[in-house]
Design brief:
Oligomer: single chain
Strand content: 35-45%
Distance between the termini: 71 Å
Number of helices: 2
CATH superfamily: LytTr DNA-binding domain
Radius of gyration: 17 Å
Largest sheet: 5 strands, antiparallel
Length: 128
Amino acid sequence: MKQKNLPKENCNVKLCVKSNNSIYYIDFQYIIRLTSDNNYTKIFYQKSIDTIISIVCSKNLGHYENTLDQSKFIRVHNRHIVNAAFIYMFDKADNKLELTTGELIEVSVRKKQEVLNKLNYNEPFSPD
């Protein structure tokens, strides 16, 4: 029996994550952030409205940086990739992002301007 091809809009909507005993298929829209832990990556995702799950996998953060849509996921630090949909506030003075989950994520000084650009930040208008 011939398998039908999925429509293009349904392709690539899930991330396949292999851990020790399981394989997870996580919708990209539910991934909150990814954090480097030496040569491992910890992926935090929203399983339900009030449940956040984390999975540790053996791939490094660079692997996921190349896999994720860079218009939706932002590398904010050498240890963090964040889903822009979960960003609540950027404290420019402290270089920290506050996520809708309440977590604070450090933004490196080197990545600050890139983060501002990706978040479409414009300096406030002041008439001269």
